[in-house]
Amino acid sequence: MQENQFLKLIEQHSGILYKVSRIYMDSEVEQQDLRQEIIFQLWKSIDKFKGDSQFSSWMYRVGINTSITYFKKNKRRPDKSELKTNIDIQEESQEDEKESQLTHFYTAVKSLNKIEKAIILLFIEGYSHNEIAKQLGLSSGNTRVKLNRTKQKIKELIKQQGYEF
Amino acid sequence: MNFDAIKKEMSQSVEGLPKNEFKIDLKKGKHNPIYRIRKNMIEEIITTIIAMVVFLMFPFFTDLKMTNLNKSIYLLFMSLTVFMISFYMVKQICFLFRNSNLSINTKDAIKEYIYEVKLTLEAYKSYVIASSLLVPIPSLIIFRSLYLDNSNSLLNIDSTSLFNIERWLNMQLSTIEVLYLVIVYLITGAIFYLITQLWTTYLYGKHVKKLEQIIEELREEEI
Question: Of the candidates A52, A75, A98, which is a domain's last residue?
Answer without folding.
Answer: A75
